[in-house]
Amino acid sequence: MTGTVDPDARQMARFVVIYDTPSDIEAFERHYNDVHIPLAKQYPGLRRFTRSHEPAAVIGEPCHMVVMLDWDDMASLEAALKSEIGRRTAEDAAENLARYATFRGMVLQLDEI
User: Fold this and answer.
1) Treating both helix axes as pointing N-terminal to C-terminal, what angle do 74-82 and 84-92 enclose, rounded to 10 degrees?
2) 10 Å Cβ neighbour count for 76?
């Protein structure tokens, strides 16, 4: 059946962050690796943390890095973002990473079909 979603299919949630090319790549990467990743890996319920440097742009402008964080469901993702570690991670991004690069994030509900 085309266009139908299995009601018993597993739904996951993903937080995606796209970082533009930093003004100082070395400083950005150092802070990201030494401070930001250790914070983000403390998100409650986080199942997987992946990233891709300099992904090939097929449509639109290229970027420096794409980061993907996965949870079992949307409720778990939302709870993690609202948690104390979620607030600390967001503050770190706003105060430290934003000085080197613009970035944008989105929350996705993934339906396994």
Assistant:
1) 70
2) 18
Candidate CATH numbers 3.40.830.10, 3.30.70.100, 3.30.300.130, 3.40.50.300; the one for domain 11-111: 3.30.70.100
77 token code pair: 């993702």
Domain boundaries, the chain: 11-111
Q: How many CA atoms lie within 13 A of 55 on its CB side?
A: 17
Pairing of strands 48-53, 103-111: unpaired
- 3-state DSSP assignment of residue 59: coil
Question: What pLDDT shows up at residue 101?
Answer: 97
- Cβ neighbour number for residue 54 with a 10 Å cutoff: 11
Is residue 5 scored above 80 in pLDDT?
Answer: no
- Alpha carbon distance 16, 67 (integer Å): 6
Measured from the Cβ of residue 1, the count of other Cβ atoms closer than 10 Å reads 5
Q: Give the mean pLDDT of 16-31.
A: 97
